[in-house]
Design goal:
- The chain is built from six helices and twelve strands.
- It is α/β, with parallel strands linked by helices.
- The protein has a single domain, classed as Rossmann fold (3-Layer(aba) Sandwich).
- The strands form three sheets. Strands 1, 4, 5, 6, 7, 8, 9 and 10 form an eight-stranded mixed sheet that branches.
- The model has no long low-confidence stretch (mean pLDDT 94).
């Protein structure tokens, strides 16, 4: 798996990352969601440089211009609910993409820190021979991402897999690298070294779904 660490090079991306991590700015859910969407746009733009293009004649009011246009079929897949703002940012760049939505959550059968990943709902087009972009804002243990990817394979084998994530843990990135196709590319804004005993990224930013949409029971 190739890792593209986008915040290594200074850009406006670092401002948006700083704001979604900031415990005081996080109190504004609209701003939090908007910054997630902006980060999704930036990561998608960087990803777009690795796709296939074809030459096409474009008729302007004054003549014809030969242009290179996107020549890949794309499916954007997001894990509910935290993935929704990131999904919207990706979709603003790949506006003709098809869309998939998957419900995946941590199930704690013994009310302790041990958990399994439950995938209860999936709505997707066929993904055979298409570019699959899997958007997951927080790449912590990596278990939910692998569970979702394996579920999506029931609907075809993608031509290539791209992962878009905002913050990841090194442990999670190692976990998915061992379980995804070798040519997979990860487009990640930033990563942290540690997970706590509950499997959350430290320092991370907290629970992205709660920050975007309010606390759940």
């Amino acid at each position: 798996m190739k890792i593209n660490h986008i915040s290594k090079q200074n850009s406006i991306l670092n401002k948006f990352l700083s704001e979604i991590r900031d415990i005081n700015i996080q109190k504004d859910p609209l701003r939090f969601r908007t910054n997630i969407e902006r980060i999704g746009e930036i990561l998608s733009y960087e990803l777009s440089k690795n796709l296939n293009y074809k030459s096409k004649q474009i008729q302007t009011p004054l003549g014809i211009k030969q242009m290179n246009v996107l020549d890949d079929q794309i499916v954007v897949a997001s894990i509910l609910r935290a993935g929704l703002p990131l999904h919207m940012g990706v979709l603003r760049i790949f506006d003709n993409a098809e869309n998939a939505f998957i419900s995946a959550y941590r199930y704690h059968p013994h009310n302790n820190n041990e958990f399994s990943i439950q995938v209860d709902y999936i709505a997707t087009p066929g993904i055979q021979d298409k570019i699959l972009i899997l958007a997951d804002p927080m790449l912590a243990t990596g278990q939910s991402l692998i569970a979702v990817y394996n579920k999506l394979l029931q609907f075809g084998k993608p031509k290539k897999l791209h992962i878009i994530s905002i913050i990841g843990a090194v442990q999670g990135m190692d976990y998915i690298a061992d379980r995804l196709p070798e040519e997979t590319q990860l487009w990640i804004a930033d990563f942290d070294k540690n997970l706590n005993d509950k499997g959350y990224i430290v320092p991370g930013l907290g629970d992205a779904g709660d920050l975007a949409y309010g606390k759940k029971l």
